[in-house]
TrEMBL record:
Protein name (record): DHA2 family efflux MFS transporter permease subunit
Organism: Undibacterium hunanense
Pfam families: MFS_1 (PF07690)
Bilayer topology term: Multi-pass membrane protein
Upper classification of the organism: Bacteria, Pseudomonadati, Pseudomonadota, Betaproteobacteria, Burkholderiales
SUPFAM superfamilies attached to this UniProt entry: MFS general substrate transporter (SSF103473)
UniProt KW keywords: Cell membrane, Membrane, Transmembrane, Transmembrane helix, Transport
Annotated TM spans: 60-81, 88-107, 113-135, 147-168, 174-196, 208-227, 239-258, 279-301, 313-331, 343-361, 367-388, 409-427, 486-503
PANTHER family xrefs: MAJOR FACILITATOR SUPERFAMILY MULTIDRUG TRANSPORTER MFSC
Length: 519
């Protein structure tokens, strides 16, 4: 490939109102995007009921978005070289607005799923490009602060999604979970065009890697479907899941072999040759998988076992954003002066403490005890994304930032989905195991069981009803023990990730100062 000429001219950092408006616009785009990946989750019963389909069919509203999004995220670098950062970002926002409108207007499940596929596909480049544009908007010395402001939106949106989705579904109609994107998206598009239209990146006319693109769609689509449908179809007891797994593994092997032999690959796997990139991506992805899995397990446990309502469970989880928002700008300010690995290590220690505390939960846990780890988790989150992202992008030339950001976000998002699937599966299997073990201690030869039965019968409860009550009590206890098993395991895994962080060697000013300043 002819060495592409350097970008036409360095873009000077933005200043004053333009910088503030640019930061707001880029952050809102990320918020809207991340929010939409989780806002539909709590609205599935309302959507499926309204469209006359089963809740299982309704879950395709989530799956279709996730599959399309997972495929398009790693294409960001390749698409950027063809269309330019600003053009691609603006197109993504406008198409996201149109697809949101189509989702809300959908008269049946088929059109809704088609609109969600479009929405997921066009959402892919938005997160990596917002990162790249934001870094280019700030002077090198302030790039840590840029990442901190960007990180806040990615931390708060997953928590706001279920809360907002539930509130809208309860008080309005489900199409409004999609319509709220329209004013936000139009404002973001207008602000982006006003500020960034003269800051376009260089465009290169490279050949299209059709085989690589085809293989990417095949293996990522198969993997995402396998993760989404595995629990529902009883994992590897299902021929469909086995087939999807084989397709995903074989497709991935062929994809890697093909891409490594291409001059213009659709995904730049050579980025993994860099120690900072590869170790940083593995650390942030496994950490995010553990964190995201807990975001799924905690509300489920509270609602299904401790009889919390969706709103009450949301309130228990929501404070995680408080310290994340308060501390992120402070972390952004001190990061250039401190080794990013130390801050990332502190984050993992914070997460380990959170999960150790949660591993002590029981069925009598009160709200105050639930909230303490949640608040600490917010502090850990503020030290998690920013330093690890800075390590991953450290030393990357500016033209590689969209590709590096896209690929790292792709692996992280995929690990988030895997974390949720794996944790819910472990939770189910451990619950079954604990239930079986505790059931062995019931029967006429166990005085505690006999006493419990007598107490219930004396209260006027029939024998069958008494058995049902005891079985329910055992189920709640088993599920709680299974959840605490997962929290205990997660705590040790976070401690193990600290070693991975110290395999990297970021520069003193670890954020892509090169990236931000090489313009």
């Amino acid at each position: 490939m002819s060495a592409a000429p350097r970008p036409q001219a360095p873009h000077p950092p933005l200043k004053g109102p333009q910088l503030a408006m640019g930061t707001l616009a880029l952050s809102l785009a990320v918020f809207m995007n991340v929010l939409d990946s989780s806002i539909a989750n709590v609205s599935i019963p309302a959507i499926s009921g309204n469209l006359g389909v089963s809740p299982q069919q309704g879950t395709w509203v989530i799956t279709s978005f996730a599959v399309a999004n997972a495929i398009s995220v790693p294409l960001t670098g390749w698409l950027t070289t063809h269309f330019g950062q600003v053009r691609l970002f603006l197109s993504s926002i406008l198409l996201f607005v149109i697809s949101s409108w189509l989702c809300g207007m959908a008269p049946n499940i088929e059109i809704l799923i088609a609109a969600r596929i479009l929405q997921g596909a066009v959402a892919g480049p938005m997160i990596p490009l917002s990162q790249a544009l934001l870094l280019g908007s700030y002077p090198p010395s302030k790039s840590s602060m840029a990442l901190a402001l960007w990180g806040m939106t990615t931390l708060v949106a997953p928590i706001m999604g279920p809360l907002l989705g539930g509130w809208i579904s309860d008080n309005y109609t489900w199409p409004w979970i999609f319509y709220i994107n329209i004013p936000v998206g139009l404002f973001t598009a207008w602000a982006t065009w006003s500020i960034y239209r003269k800051r376009e990146s260089q465009i290169k006319n490279l050949p299209i890697d059709k085989v690589g693109l085809f293989l990417l769609v095949i293996w990522v689509g198969a993997l995402q479907l396998m993760l989404d449908k595995g629990k529902e179809l009883d994992w590897f007891n299902s021929g469909e899941i086995i087939l999807l797994t084989v397709v995903a593994v074989v497709g991935l092997i062929y994809f890697v072999i093909w891409e490594l032999g291409q001059d213009h690959p659709v995904v730049d796997l050579s980025l993994f040759k860099g120690r900072n990139f590869s170790a940083g991506v593995i650390a942030i992805s496994i950490g995010y998988g553990l964190f995201f899995g807990s975001l799924v397990i905690m509300p489920l446990w509270l609602q299904t076992q401790l009889s919390y309502t969706a709103t009450e469970a949301g309130k228990v989880m929501a404070p995680v954003g408080i310290f994340a928002i308060l501390l992120s700008p402070i972390i952004g300010k001190i990061l250039p002066k401190v080794d990013a690995r130390k801050i990332a290590s502190a984050a993992f220690l914070g997460f380990a403490l959170v999960f150790f505390l949660r591993s002590g939960f029981n069925t009598e846990v009160d709200t105050y005890t639930l909230l303490i780890p949640t608040l600490i988790q917010g502090a850990a989150m503020s030290m998690f994304f920013i330093p690890l992202t800075s390590i991953i992008l450290s030393g990357q030339p500016p033209d590689k930032i969209p590709a590096a950001s896209g690929l790292s976000n792709f692996v992280r998002i995929m690990c988030g989905g895997m974390g949720a699937s794996i944790m819910t599966t472990i939770w189910d299997s451990r619950s079954t195991l604990h239930h079986a073990q505790m059931t062995e201690l019931t029967g006429s030869s166990y005085p505690t069981f006999v006493q419990s039965m007598q107490n219930l019968i004396q209260q006027g409860i029939p024998e069958q009803g008494a058995y049902a009550i005891i079985d329910r009590t055992i189920s709640v206890q088993a599920s709680t023990m299974a959840a605490t098993d997962i929290f205990w395991m997660s705590a040790y895994m976070f401690i193990g990730l600290i070693g991975l962080v110290w395999l990297t060697k970021p520069k003193k000013s670890a954020v892509p100062v090169d990236a931000g300043g090489a313009h």
